[in-house]
Amino acid sequence: MVSHSFTRFNRGLRASARVRNFLKDLIAEKRMELKKGADPHQDLITCLLSTRDENNGEGMTEKEIVDNVILVLTAGHDNSAILITFMIRLLAIEPSIYAAVLQEQEGIAKSKPRGELLTWEDLAKMKYTWKVALETLRMFPPIFGGFRKAVKDIEYNGYIIPKGWQIFWTMNMTLMDDSIFTEPSKFNPTRFDNQASIPPYSFIAFGGGPRMCPGYEFAKIEALVTIHYLVKRGLELAQKSSDPRQDLISCMLSTRDENKREVITEKGIEDNAILNGIHDVFFYSATDNLYRKSEQHKQQQYAKQF
Predict the structure, then answer these.
(1) Which of 36, 105, 162, 206 has its CA 20 to 30 A from that of 77?
(2) Which pLDDT value is given to residue 238?
(3) Residue 222: partners with Cβ closer than 8 Å, 6 or more residues away
(4) Which residues carry a binding-site annotation?
(5) Does the keyword section mention Oxidoreductase (predicted)?
């Protein structure tokens, strides 16, 4: 057996154990709250604790709940960051589309009391913004492709693909196929006005069928909420180039506070810098908060011993 003491892998295992132990304690606390009549939908853990199998009525095991919480905290944020990055970039070079998004988001903001958080009803009103997100995913899918198994012999361009072979399909080639999407190189969110007109399994940014991306709704929430607050704070974008594929984004991001004072101004931001910044907001803030709570919990447990 190979010893992995003093390695990064070992540190990862120990860190994982600490996070899992903290989550187990938190789950126990939430169980007690539910027994006292707490709202079963107040947060993710209470929702998972209250979930029951439709067939046998059994709930999720502690391990299943822990795994799902960690999944939500860590998985899929890179893809969401890529989506939001290119949404910002494409809005920067499409003033009319940005104006429509701005109008939609301002309408939602004005309909709410000052300081009130977004609700499901608010997200449901962001129809045009979501079409912008879908068109962004079509033009710049975060996933390269995937494998499919041939269920029968297939002839393609004179080549025979035998039944049982694994076929790798590229998402970008499908989403930029002009036989499916008219003028595929044109950024046009209105093409999603009638999604029923798009052939089945042609828009596959989130996959399709029973194994489609389980984080679809989560990614949708992240994108819509992020764009809402960027627009609400007075996001202004200006560009020097109209090519969103460039490594260097030649635009200015400027956010202003409620008194219209400039807060942040950055020029010439690299795509990766924006992507990593958004990733930090979603991933590191969550994990750092979890780590801090874990440390506080450990200190409290230690103090109880004396």
Answers:
(1) 105
(2) 55
(3) 77, 80, 84, 282
(4) 213
(5) yes
